[in-house]
Structure to design on (258 residues):
């Protein structure tokens, strides 16, 4: 048992915990291990860059509304920007997933980082689905009519009414993006806390 | 984008050409990322390695 008493101030305890687990040279490192010098490590950063574009274009779309994004040329441009940024987000997220899977990125205490990544993937899919329901066009209506049967057969129809535009739009522009952003921040912080996992070969063949 | 995509039907495989091309493109990109040389700078050493 430690002879040192815990500080009474919770802010001091939190600050000391942050200093202990995430010093500034880990949070914002200017040097990286030699094995990080590979394009495979760039996929995660590109995913974050795409997410920034998704959020920025989404904020603009939510500010001006459906009529603007369907009827004006600038609106259609931002609509396309949002759509294609989402395509790049998913494309590079899956490439990042492949990279981490083949290098077993969950090793040496990084299970939480991996699992948060899994939850980000699932939450992103939900966000994309509600986005298709928020288009306010015939495509969105068709998807909603088809999706309602899937939701009802899964027993989720009582909680998620995909024919309810207000509910789907609210989930798409508020709860789910906040969830994805929060999880991405937690994911990055955990990467900074633990550092980048060593390649399997660098451990002399150890596969623990 | 208003017209339906054409599909590849090969045995039990049934996939639209756009989806197939995206998947193939991702595989090619992944392979290039593994073999393409990465420009090394001064900022690569063992700091933060655990």
């Amino acid at each position: 048992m430690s002879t040192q008493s815990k500080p009474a101030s919770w802010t001091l305890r939190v600050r000391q915990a942050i200093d202990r687990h995430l010093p500034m040279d880990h949070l914002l490192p200017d040097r990286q291990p030699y094995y990080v010098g590979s394009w495979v490590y760039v996929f995660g950063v590109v995913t974050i860059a795409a997410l920034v574009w998704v959020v920025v274009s989404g904020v603009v779309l939510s500010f001006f509304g459906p009529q603007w994004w369907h009827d004006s040329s600038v609106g259609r441009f931002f609509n396309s920007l949002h759509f294609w940024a989402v395509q790049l987000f998913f494309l590079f997220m899956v490439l990042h997933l492949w990279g981490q899977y083949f290098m077993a990125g969950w090793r040496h205490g990084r299970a939480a980082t991996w699992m948060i990544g899994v939850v980000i993937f699932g939450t992103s899919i939900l966000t994309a689905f509600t986005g298709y329901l928020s288009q306010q066009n015939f495509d969105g209506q068709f998807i909603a009519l088809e999706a309602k049967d899937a939701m009802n057969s899964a027993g989720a129809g009582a909680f998620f009414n995909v024919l309810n535009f207000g509910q789907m739009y609210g989930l798409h522009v508020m709860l789910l993006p906040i969830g994805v952003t929060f999880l991405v921040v937690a994911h990055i912080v955990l990467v900074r806390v633990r550092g980048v996992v060593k390649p399997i070969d660098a451990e002399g063949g150890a596969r623990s | 984008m208003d017209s339906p995509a054409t599909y590849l039907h090969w045995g039990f495989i049934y996939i639209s050409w756009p989806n197939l091309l995206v998947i193939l493109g991702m595989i090619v990109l992944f392979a290039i990322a593994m073999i393409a040389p990465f420009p090394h700078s001064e900022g690569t050493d063992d700091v933060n390695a655990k």
